[in-house]
Write a structure and sequence with these properties.
The structure is a homohexamer of 287-residue chains.
Chain A (H helix, E strand, L loop, with lengths): L2 H18 L3 E6 L2 H4 L1 H16 L3 E6 L2 H10 L6 E2 L2 E2 L3 H25 L4 E5 L6 E5 L9 E6 L2 H8 L3 E5 L1 E4 L7 E3 L2 H12 L3 E6 L17 E3 H9 L7 H13 L4 E6 L5 H7 L6 E4 L2
Parallel strand pairs in A: 1-2, 1-11, 2-8, 5-8, 6-9, 11-13, 12-14
Antiparallel strand pairs in A: 3-4, 6-7, 9-10, 13-14
Chain lengths: 287, 287, 287, 287, 287, 287
């Protein structure tokens, strides 16, 4: 491709770059984008580009498949209740090891290798994410986030690091100090609210919110909270999407400017969402 | 164009963006790129993009045609000796007015309008550029740069501004405090040295250094000081290029990492030079 | 004179020096004090003394005669409507060149030469002064100040510079980015308000506000806004004084502690106003 | 016990507290002190006390037993060559998960629970510990530490956190970015040198350096490098002690003031070493 | 004593140390603890320990016996009215000399000698304590504290010094600039309020507040303002205790968290109060 | 006097004010200027003026007459050996009380009253001046200055205070922690050296260094160290002047730019020395 066209494309991204400079964006990273090698490499590049143009980026990752793999390897069965993993003591140990020890540090290493600066943390570090154990006994060490103390994140961001966060919380109340398994989308939403982020971006394995789940052409590009709730009332939101939609609503109602549900199955969706005219997926706004 | 390709092109620029982050680049802006409206708009965009990705940019501008126009308008003849304008008292007043008052503030305004932060200065501000009057009486108030005090530039850069500099110096010695007309290429080279810049970029109306001035295909892409001096000895450097080459040598010998002579007649040459594989024009290196 | 008396006079100024330390004073510099060589030198000395005793000084200058001179030189006629210069495109270019390029940098150079630290700016730098075009089409590029962004001034003052400001604004609205000609008194008043200055001082070619314009002995030394408005209602304020009085009222109503109309035809009026018992000219207060 | 005696004991510790204020101490934490519940609780308290009296403490932990347990659970055999674990790809994953995910975050959580501020990191974070793969192919992903970049540790210490470090390095050279298993004693020694620490303390499961391994009464309380090398030449240092002794020598030769080999099988050995007259274990000094 | 027990006692103090870190404690130092050599040495050690564990300590001292001794030596009689020293001009000179020159600098020297950092100040320095002369003419230069300007104390505390304060004020009103003799308990209470201290501790020569002055077993350990006022109404507070109680009430009503009246006749009462379970003396709380 | 002349005199001082801005000047204050009420008031005004124009001023005071008065009052005889006061334990107490408690705080109060910011310190505060006891047993607690730790002075100067220093040192060696009586001129010289002061000014009760002690017209205005030593060799320096001359030489040989011996019997000698063309007294220079 000609250099001239290259330059034009860079310039095309300029207004978006100018807009996001100095702002904070919290990305929930999960699904196919974490498994597929090319997609993963593209996400890492996107994160570094975001950091280069002055965006303060926080990455919250998932890790279901890796947890399943390790549970299986240790002869432990994966069970789920209401979308949450049944997390007995032994499972919690595996969850913590896989998320905080493997997935988290691997992503951190990839960012460093690509020339970025990353620091791998979880909710236990500085007791950054405090959670209490859910009441449902069957679910075990599953937590509900009570409070996010953003100070350790601010220290890291101010020192130029991209924090990479595992969704493992510091337990409070009856399980004071015990690690708890928390939902990564929720963790991302609560962190975004605590940081007063400009954007919360949830990377998923679907296109966004669809009017008709079976029709990709029915993607809704923009949606206010009110419109979203109205769709929900009419049962037009798919079951799997509901918790994600609720995370977005929480963020929007707590100071985050925009929330996005984007398709992580395509390469560079973060850059496309941030730096092109059309964006990608569904954008949610407060009003 | 597809978003996917847009993203790839952004990513293609990433290693260059990473490399230049936090570094200082001094650009001499002149020739066609200052006259042609589209070229000018493209330079402004390039400067803002450079600033967005964390490059500390200093712009030193020329302004010959605007000076000629104004001299003519006031019934004053433009005369030159050895490439320097004969600058009697009246001419110096016009030079100062046009450069510091018109050209400088217009560029500053354009950067602001495009969403950047700019501050228009000249060598008189904080006596940033001190010069002494050349001995040749015929040349009048033409100065040779003695010393650059970079402190006002550092204040501006640290506060996030792009300094836009007119090549008008604060006279010392016999003309203490009197404005002096200085060469913009030299001013840029001395400023680059004083700032320990990564790069000095001279925008010109030629392709770069050519083996054969009449053959565009003879462009020399890279040249060490030694090679350059050898070409000069063989009279293979065009006369007009010699002072520019000397500015580059001064910069390279005083701590600047690379010096470039690029073709300002093309749009976005700054971005192309900085953010593509091939670069553009001639790159000079110390060794 | 005996050293003993010299010391006594310095000590006499001490309470005033103590009072103004660390405070901000905005001076509108114009009229004879800009033209007469001795007066100009005295103003420069006064500014440096103010800076030495810790006063954060901002100078806003005029430049009518220099503009007239240059307009004439380029064969352009000077026309005025309601006290404002009819500023067509060509005139605006001359205004900008003369103010920002000539007058501004000359004053900056004089302060540097006298051992001070000065930086020459205008409303375009950092878009410090935003103005919109007046509706009266005949007046051309004349602006009304909408907003002053003091951040560039604070950066300069904190770094120890005396900002010297040309009354040329950054146009907004229909003329986004276009330079606009603004009134220097108004610019000074708006800047004083934006900085929460202790004092606004307008240097004029009259003694101050007189009860009887023809009787120098009728100088009013102190006047509250209320008293001033009462005089105006009785048509006891001369026509030329009204806009200056309105600038003072604006400043006083927007956080400036005191406003002064002083006689710039005498040397060292700034020092006399600030550091002697009687002061000079007319002092306006909010109540 | 009487309050009076309590007070006397606190006062007895005062000169030591005064001496260590503001200094950096790097502790290698391993062996029984990591397994036994009471000992672990005592170490945590000691760390918090150290932090309370202004000591900048860095903890480098081991985790052999937990790794063995997990390897066994996943049906993987633990093999060792020359004291180093044979670390094939699969083993390295377990090592990383157990150290960075389980042991590290558990210690971090315990410090937080006891009222301290801790942050769990490994050599991958900010590429803090760079290592190259050992040449011996059988050993797999075992690394030799090349370089410690202390900046992330300084950021954490300055923000009041106690860094808890897993001995997993960021691979360089042929294994760029790949995690490497490194020796915890070596990691602690290199970190101590990089921080210019006052002390390196290695917690072990022996009393210290003994003249006669079978005679606890033969403990050597103080030893210079010279004396240590002399003992080694005479084969009077036990085989297991040699690598620890070498770590101490490295630290002492690279700016660390004192190195200690202490007995982690007793509670509060850190406090006893730091805050009592006799200290505990063997103290090594440069001369 | 065994090191193990030493360690346990240090650890026993840990929760208290954690609690008081970074907090401000103002101690009024007087009575026997200033006269007895061993008690004095113990107070100095306590102050250094407090400083070592991060408590920002301010010491306000008395000095009655030293004043009496000096007055006697100069042939001046000590007279008191309503608990206040009759302070004529000559007496005030002696008070000032003894407190600011002798007692203050001696304590400062002792802290330095014990390895601490101290600075000896009085209310005159930076006009830190402004007071007005009491109306009762007989009492002479006795002052009532109007205002405490804590800025000089914050400068000293931030630089790591323990301020040692003499109860001599800077007179205002009719005695502008004249030193005034003020009550040390009151000075301490006002300083504690100005600093928003965690605690005010008054060291006395009694056990604390007793239900029955003649029965040491009747010590009241905790008392709210309400309870204290109720006791006072029932005349159950001894006469000498009333002004001290009022100082405590002032502090508690002005932002100080707790006030203590402790027995300075025992060694290390400060450490015992701060770092043991039972504490010592009487603790007063707002509610 | 006319305002115009007042302004001229202020302007006359301007070059001196510009020269001394931001520089440090150490003044030894003693003799008549401390006793006479008008002279004292003038010195205070001079100090405030110096501070207002940005001079970092440190005042070291004497206090012989006040000490004599107090010794007499307590029935103690004043005895001198070789110009030093015989300072037995009792005398040392009086010296410390009078200097640190009375003279120091009175000067501090006067500066505050005149609108300045002062802090009264002595060599004990922060152990700023360390001295060892002279060997001559008869002289008692007289010290020789070993070392000045300027950090407490820098803290005070940076916070905008004028430090007022009593010549009482913190004893080291055999008298660790004991106050020692030191010579005020020496203290000033050592402080000036420790601060790298621009000037040391010794206020005396003579005109300066005279060629003929009986002829006021024989004042030597400028003297290099070499010239001074030559005069001394020829016994042309009066006996009382020799220690002062030696203080000046010490300062000049340790980084102080200029030393002055001025006549404190005239009002405003500090201002006259600093801010007039002729200066006053004798100026000593290194070469």
């Amino acid at each position: 491709m000609e250099n001239k066209i290259r330059a034009q494309i860079l310039i095309h991204a300029l207004p978006y770059i100018q807009h996001f400079q100095g702002k904070t964006i919290v990305v929930k990273y999960g699904g196919n984008a974490m498994i597929n090698y090319e997609l993963k490499a593209a996400v890492i590049q996107d994160l570094i580009m975001m950091s280069c143009v002055g965006i303060r980026t926080v990455l919250v990752h998932g890790g279901g498949p890796e947890i399943d793999y390790m549970l299986k390897k240790t002869g432990k069965e994966s069970r789920f209740t209401k979308g949450f993993r049944n997390t007995d003591k032994e499972t919690m140990e595996i969850v913590q090891m896989v998320l905080c020890g493997k997935v988290n540090k691997d992503i951190t290493g990839l960012i460093q290798q690509a020339g970025g600066k990353a620091i791998g943390l979880c909710g236990i570090d500085g007791a950054m994410i405090k959670a209490s154990k859910v009441k449902d006994e069957d679910m075990g060490f599953v937590g509900e986030v009570d409070e996010v103390d953003a100070s350790i994140l601010l220290t890291a961001l101010d020192a130029g690091f991209t924090p990479v966060i595992s969704p493992v919380a510091y337990g409070t109340g009856a399980v004071e100090g015990h690690p708890l398994n928390i939902n990564a989308d929720t963790a991302a939403a609560k962190i975004a609210a605590a940081l007063g982020a400009e954007k919360l971006i949830l990377m998923t394995d679907i296109q966004g919110i669809l009017k008709d789940v079976n029709d990709p052409a029915s993607l809704i590009k923009t949606l206010s909270i009110k419109e979203l709730l109205s769709l929900k009332d009419k049962n037009l939101i798919s079951k799997g999407m509901i918790p994600k939609a609720e995370c977005c609503i929480f963020a929007l109602e707590n100071g985050v400017n925009k929330a996005h549900i984007i398709d992580g199955r395509l390469p560079h969706t973060l850059l496309i969402e941030l730096f092109t005219d059309e964006g990608i997926g569904t954008m949610l706004t407060a009003v």
